[in-house]
């Protein structure tokens, strides 16, 4: 699970992939590619790579934006990016090769550049806060929170400007540490390692055949998912109608958000996410909407006024939001201190030289002497150190962008004063290093947790005079720095294992980030203009984390006075429970701890409801049955099937948004009514 509560990552197992790539009696990875010339870093950065990256970044930005604005659960798209990048460029080069016009063959280094650029670009759709802190500043979310602490409505101009001045600092902050992290400390970076093994395998003859089949499978399910979304659209002419409002378990269960909404996206997400993530989300939904909210609702008139609307934060809505916040903070702080302690312990032993770092799956010292590994390591280290990025360049870049940002950001968001930003930028390189190092050990980026710390710190410092907006904006500044820092170090690890130059990795990350700073706001703006109810609780795109982040900022400024009656006690209970569950999970170890649910995942349906958890569990069930029937085929093709379902449904949002902008309504409303409502309709029709 990556990017704290908002982003769930699940890729190939690096250890298993390594076994496939390094068979005992066959050549090692770099011996297979020994006869292939490694292109210079400039030749790795091809025009065709960036054209493909731009097209894919638009596709993935729509997908991430849709996930951001619906539930906030975002799976890893690295596999899809690498696979589609390989397919598009390989198809193009084959055509040129047959016509005799091919000047430069397609290499794994170029494939790595595409994957890096696409993930950097679509990553801005996450770290840009369109479903969290940035949209949380809007008047629409402020009204739902009952907050008069000011607002700043979205506008394409200031969003693009804000992202451009805060999204590049993380890149410059960790560049000087790339050798220490990748070569000296030998940090694992599981996602980066898995992506490298995937790309390496694509460019072997056997891997290319499998990739071709995977792309074909992805295309089939992409088409099915897109057409299914189009078919469903015809039946959604009114509110609460169509397949998305299908009362699968009855109308009573539907009222409490228990239903299957036929979402191809979340069936696909369920196939990518680990089983325990999906089960945790479902358990959270049962606990909250099945038990707690119905019980608290019986205290109406005692714990909170009976006449309050359902969206009022001093009513039942307040319990939903603040208890979820308590669980998110408990889980986030526990993992923050766990990763921080591992980081400090690892650094201490590394500096003192007493023992190796506590890195999982590290080969023993004896196995390091094997010829295959030593040859691979030698070749990779030699090329990784060949194209140096000068330290003065990264320091000068950081200072320059920090100075520009400190001047510009207060003019965009007046409540965030220049001295708040200056303090953040003084501490940011240290925090970026901690996040990048911790991510290398655990594959867990704590960008959201660092953002929440900024919300509470800057919000409390600013106080009642603009503290809510200052805290949200500070969250954005901090999240962008630490998120891009860990992403870049993951890419350096991928580049190290595929012999891609650090310079080409850095340049592709910069170009991808630049693309994201334009593409992501434009995609969000399309959603914002097309759907008038964007951000409202029962809408198609409720943006759940926007109100969560807004209320965190209110809590930081106002303290516990913002909570309804007995809500604080329940928050304490669930905050402690989140810490206790994580502690028990760690104490039980990997074998038994894997059966303990994740509090962060449990907290997500507290506000939204469990309907999407049912979709995800259906995806898990499909994968489980498939693995029982044919595990090898499931391992090879399940990521492609899941990616096709997600991509098809995600890209359907583009024509859906255009139809909404044009005010074209579907022709049919397929609504499911209770017996009492049906009898009223019969009476009306009879009269």
From TrEMBL:
It is found in: Membrane. It is a multi-pass membrane protein. One of its GO terms (molecular function) is oligopeptide transmembrane transporter activity. Belongs to the YSL (TC 2.A.67.2) family. The chain crosses the membrane at residues 45-67, 73-92, 113-135, 155-177, 316-337, 389-413, 419-441, 453-486, 506-528, 567-584, 604-626. Pfam families: OPT. GO terms for cellular component: membrane. PANTHER family: METAL-NICOTIANAMINE TRANSPORTER YSL8-RELATED (PTHR31645:SF76), OLIGOPEPTIDE TRANSPORTER YGL114W-RELATED (PTHR31645). Residues 1-24 are annotated as: Disordered. Keywords: Membrane, Transmembrane, Transmembrane helix, Transport. This is Probable metal-nicotianamine transporter YSL5. It comes from the Eukaryota. InterPro entries: OPT, YSL-like.
């Amino acid at each position: 699970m990556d990017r704290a509560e908002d982003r769930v990552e699940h890729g190939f197992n690096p250890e298993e992939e390594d076994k496939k790539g390094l068979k005992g009696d066959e050549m090692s990875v770099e011996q297979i590619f020994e006869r292939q010339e490694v292109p210079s870093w400039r030749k790795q950065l091809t025009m065709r790579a960036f054209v493909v990256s731009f097209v894919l970044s638009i596709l993935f930005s729509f997908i991430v934006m849709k996930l951001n604005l619906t539930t906030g659960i975002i799976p890893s798209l690295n596999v899809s990016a690498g696979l589609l990048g390989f397919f598009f460029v390989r198809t193009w080069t084959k055509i040129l090769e047959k016509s005799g016009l091919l000047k430069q063959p397609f290499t794994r280094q170029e494939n790595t550049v595409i994957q890096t650029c696409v993930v950097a670009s679509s990553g801005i759709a996450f770290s840009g806060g369109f479903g969290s802190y940035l949209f949380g500043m809007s008047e629409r979310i402020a009204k739902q929170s009952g907050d008069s602490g000011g607002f700043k409505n979205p506008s394409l101009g200031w969003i693009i400007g804000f992202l451009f001045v805060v999204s590049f600092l993380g890149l410059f902050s960790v560049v000087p540490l790339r050798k220490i992290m990748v070569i000296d400390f030998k940090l694992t970076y599981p996602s980066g390692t898995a992506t490298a093994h995937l790309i390496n395998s694509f460019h072997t003859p056997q891997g290319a055949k499998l990739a071709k089949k995977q792309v074909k499978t992805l295309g089939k399910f992409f088409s099915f998912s897109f057409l299914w979304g189009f078919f469903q659209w015809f039946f959604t002419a009114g509110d609460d109608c169509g397949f998305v409002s299908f009362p699968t378990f009855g109308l009573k269960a539907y009222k409490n958000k228990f239903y299957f909404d036929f979402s191809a996206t979340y069936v696909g997400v369920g196939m990518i996410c680990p089983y325990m993530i999906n089960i945790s989300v479902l358990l959270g939904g049962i606990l909250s909407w099945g038990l707690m909210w119905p019980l608290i609702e019986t205290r109406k008139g005692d714990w909170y006024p009976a006449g309050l609307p359902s969206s009022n934060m001093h009513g039942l809505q307040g319990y939903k939001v603040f208890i979820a916040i308590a669980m998110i903070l408990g889980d986030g702080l526990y993992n923050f201190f766990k990763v921080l302690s591992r980081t400090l312990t690892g650094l201490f032993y590394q500096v003192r030289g007493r023992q190796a770092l506590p890195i999982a799956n590290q080969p023993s010292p004896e196995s390091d002497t094997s010829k295959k590994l030593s040859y691979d390591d030698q070749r990779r280290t030699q090329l990784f150190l060949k194209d140096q990025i000068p330290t003065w360049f990264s320091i000068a870049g950081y200072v320059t962008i920090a100075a520009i940002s400190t001047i510009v950001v207060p003019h965009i968001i007046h409540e965030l004063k220049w001295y708040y930003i200056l303090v953040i930028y003084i501490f940011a390189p240290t925090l970026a290093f901690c996040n990048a190092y911790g991510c290398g050990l655990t594959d867990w980026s704590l960008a959201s947790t660092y953002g929440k710390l900024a919300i509470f710190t800057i919000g409390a410092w600013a106080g009642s005079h603009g503290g809510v907006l200052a805290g949200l904006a500070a969250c954005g500044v901090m999240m962008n720095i630490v998120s891009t820092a860990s992403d870049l170090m993951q890419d350096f690890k991928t580049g190290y294992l595929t012999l891609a130059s650090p310079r080409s990795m850095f340049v592709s990350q910069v170009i991808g980030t630049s693309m994201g700073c334009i593409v992501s706001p434009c995609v969000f703006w399309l959603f914002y203009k097309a759907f008038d109810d964007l951000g409202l609780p029962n809408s198609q795109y409720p943006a759940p984390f926007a109100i969560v982040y807004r209320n965190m900022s209110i809590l930081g400024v106002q303290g516990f006075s913002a909570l309804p009656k007995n809500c604080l006690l329940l928050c304490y209970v669930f905050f402690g429970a989140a810490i206790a569950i994580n502690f028990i999970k760690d104490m039980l170890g990997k074998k038994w701890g894997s059966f303990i649910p994740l509090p962060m995942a449990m907290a997500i349906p507290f506000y939204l409801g469990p309907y999407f958890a049912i979709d995800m569990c259906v995806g898990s069930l499909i994968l489980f049955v498939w693995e029982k029937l044919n595990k090898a085929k499931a391992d090879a093709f399940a990521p492609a099937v899941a990616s096709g379902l997600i991509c098809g449904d995600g890209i359907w949002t583009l024509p859906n948004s255009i139809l909404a902008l044009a005010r074209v309504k579907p022709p049919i409303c397929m609504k499911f009514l209770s017996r009492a409502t049906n009898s009223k309709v019969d009476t009306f029709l009879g009269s």
